[in-house]
Design a protein that fits this description.
GO terms for molecular function: zinc ion binding. It contains 25 helices and 4 strands. By secondary structure, it is mainly alpha-helical.
Length: 530
């Protein structure tokens, strides 16, 4: 686990506890073990510090930072053995000189003994057991307080620590709810993921100024995606409407907590807007809860002074409830007010309608996304084109799809050119290559063969353009390239029985570039001119 300095308040707690559990002799033995360097592998595990202490045999001491009485050691001497004392002094090093602390604590122990002898004997009190497990009917805020305690002090020190946190949280936190009833156990699992997402965002903010920020950010984004997938898995496995009705108090607190995290508009590796919308979209029957959230959003939007990014998030959240109620036009009116609309933020709706087979709704969203897709990243652009292509299969005509692909050229070149070949629109395919000045040498042989089998004459302008463009580069290598293209052009003329036209063309070409001696030499090598 991660090595770190314990917080000052925990150190102060231990300093108060040591005189209550140690006598002076054992405390000095602990200091001696520390002084001789016998303490090794000091790790933080939840709210306990675990260390290895070399004695006659290797001992493992666990020092509980919240309830000292639960501290243990493999030497079986309990919470007041020299090994525990050695670990205690090793933890004090960042705060001062352990030998001075030893003298101070010994004085406290002698003073306490004198006071105890003079006082009347009182029955020994056992410390109350710590409430160190989450309670089934506690509110989510109490669960999160427990989560924070389990991972108190955890911080990133290298690029894999965030993945370590993710694995540790998923492994250590769920067993506490193993015997809870199903609704609360599933909600508890949801909150584990929500806690991890909030913690990842915290790590991201804390490490932005580090010289290793690239590695930390990359780790945060990868783990954030795992969390989002895990949360979607949780939501899909639950009947949220039934669960909300069964535990309204818990779910009301949950949605408030989610709203607080999701609607800040902060720079974050978590796609909070996606998380917020996917959960609310499942709560279709909770009309009163929706109305309360809409009212809250309206109140927030009414504030005049607000950062544009936060306002965009609130507008998108408010539009989401219009969409849930089937008011797509009103949602678009809200979304048109966005300062920086990003296409990927709305693929949630396209994807949902796509999988439900609501092709008219998919088409409505694709048309609305057209204006923002031009500025989208390549992955989002590819997703948009694939949605369009799949939707076109369910329409009476593909004319709109073709128009969209033409309007998005040159970015849509690869999708458009593939579609033209699939639909046997060979003339349009050739026109597309001519418009983009694509050489046949840069095209796939199978594509050229398909057109040649259909109508070889369609390829003539493509080879004409490429050959003359190569000649105009005016160097020996480009002349050789031109000759390669001319050989193919000659074979096409021959296959369509137009040898005379070829002869006329080649002599005109030679005459046009008569001053290019190197090119003339290449033509003579091909035995096209004398």
């Amino acid at each position: 686990m991660l090595k770190l300095q314990i917080p000052k308040n925990r150190m102060n707690y231990l300093i108060k506890q040591i005189p209550l559990h140690f006598d002076a002799a054992r405390l000095e033995q602990g200091w001696e073990a520390f002084h001789k360097g016998r303490v090794a592998e000091v790790d933080l595990q939840g709210l306990s510090v675990v260390a290895t202490v070399a004695d006659q045999a290797m001992q493992t001491a666990e020092l509980n930072l919240e309830n000292y009485a639960e501290s243990t050691c493999t030497c079986e001497a309990g919470a007041n053995c020299p090994h525990i004392g050695a670990v205690f002094f090793s933890l004090f090093v960042p705060y001062g000189r352990p030998e001075l602390l030893l003298q101070q604590l010994k004085q406290q122990i002698h003073t306490r003994r004198k006071t105890t002898r003079s006082a009347a004997p009182v029955p020994e009190r056992k410390p109350a057991p710590a409430a160190n497990v989450p309670q089934e009917h506690a509110l989510p805020v109490d669960w999160h307080r427990f989560f924070e305690g389990k991972f108190h002090g955890f911080s990133i020190s290298h690029q894999h620590s965030i993945e370590t946190f993710y694995d540790s949280a998923l492994e250590s936190l769920p067993p506490f709810a193993a015997n809870w009833k199903q609704d609360l156990r599933e909600l508890y699992q949801f909150h584990i993921v929500l806690f991890m997402m909030r913690k990842i965002e915290q790590f991201y903010q804390e490490t932005k100024s580090s010289y290793l920020s690239y590695y930390h950010e990359n780790g945060c984004r990868i783990t954030a995606k795992h969390c989002e997938d895990k949360l979607v898995e949780c939501v899909e496995s639950m009947d949220l409407n039934r669960a909300y009705s069964a535990e309204p108090k818990h779910w009301h607190a949950t949605m408030r907590m989610l709203g607080e995290s999701a609607l800040q508009g902060k720079d974050s590796p978590i796609d909070w807007l996606f998380v917020y919308r996917i959960v609310w979209w499942k709560l279709t029957k909770q009309v009163q809860a929706q109305q309360e959230e809409v009212s809250r959003l309206e109140t927030l939007l009414a504030k005049k002074e607000m950062l544009p990014k936060k306002r965009d998030v609130l507008l998108a959240a408010r539009a989401h409830f219009h969409i849930m109620q089937g008011e797509t036009d009103r949602a678009f009116a809200r979304l048109e007010q966005l300062t920086h609309p990003h296409a990927k933020e709305f693929f949630l709706y396209v994807n949902a309608y796509y999988h439900e087979g609501q092709w008219e709704q998919v088409l409505v969203w694709l048309r609305w996304l057209f204006n923002s897709i031009a500025a989208a990243g390549q992955d989002d652009f590819r997703t948009f084109c694939q949605y369009w292509l799949d939707t076109t299969k369910h329409l009476a005509s593909d004319s709109e799809w073709v128009g969209v692909m033409e309007a998005l050229l040159p970015r849509s070149y690869y999708y458009y050119t593939a579609y033209l070949l699939q639909t046997n629109r060979y003339r349009q395919w050739v026109d597309l290559q001519l418009a983009n000045r694509i050489s046949p040498l840069n095209l796939y042989g199978l594509e050229l063969k398909a057109i040649e089998d259909h109508d070889p004459a369609l390829l003539l302008p493509l080879y004409h353009q490429a050959a003359e463009r190569a000649v105009l580069e005016k160097n020996r290598a480009s002349y050789k390239t031109a000759v390669r293209l001319l050989k193919k052009l000659h074979s096409i003329y021959k296959s369509i029985g137009q040898d005379d036209r070829w002869e006329h063309y080649i002599y005109r070409l030679a005459d046009k570039f008569s001053r290019l001696r190197a090119f003339q030499e290449e033509l003579k090598k091909g035995k096209w001119i004398r």
